[in-house]
Amino acid sequence: MDSNTSSEKRGTLQPRRAVGRQRVAELLAAASDLMAEHGYEATTMAEIASRAGAKIGSLYRFFPNKEAVGEALLQQHMAIVHDEYEALERRAADLSPEQLADILIDLLAVLYPRVKSLPALMEAHTDRTEIRDRSRQQALVGISAALRVCAPGLDEQTAGDIAAVVLNNMKVMLGMTLKDAPTTPGAPDELRRMNRLYLCARLTPCRGTRAGHVSGDSY
């Protein structure tokens, strides 16, 4: 992630007061919107300040250059995704395979408004391959953990294999939601049904005494 907007070497300022933290949040939200709309390279510091309703000096007070803004956004987005998977893992014991399937298939689409600039940031990052791999591994670990909590009898290798299939389904659903993938009005529901059937078939036998009932009207 390169930037020629500033040659300053100081680090990002971490505000201590609530008003400063709120301003940083507004600046990062504006930057995320702009980078999602126009890409990282086309977004300028002046545009970020303008979108946030802030003076350019306020932006530079917290971030010495656009690279610092991008790095802060990248860390923020990765933390949001990490926290979402951890929260799902904590809930998974109380979810049926059907419920877990429905949450997972829509998870990326639900998260997208909060991490919308992540693709642009990955593309611009100098270590884009490493970042993509880390993001994919984070998703696979999170999905696999939720699967094993929901179905304790599932072994680690199988859980990882199922997680890879589910992650691909999640990406297709995101593409349909964003109209980046071929779709029709009924296709998302068909994908949900397919994902539900798949996870019920794979997880239910591994739930032991907690095996859930698969109702016919769920499909």
From TrEMBL:
GO terms for molecular function: DNA-binding transcription factor activity; transcription cis-regulatory region binding. InterPro entries: Homeodomain-like_sf (IPR009057), HTH-type_TetR-like_transc_reg (IPR050109), HTH_TetR (IPR001647). Keywords: DNA-binding. PROSITE patterns: HTH_TETR_2. Residues 21-81 form the HTH tetR-type domain. SUPFAM superfamilies: Homeodomain-like. Pfam families: TetR_N. Residues 44-63 bind DNA. It comes from the Bacteria. This is TetR/AcrR family transcriptional regulator.
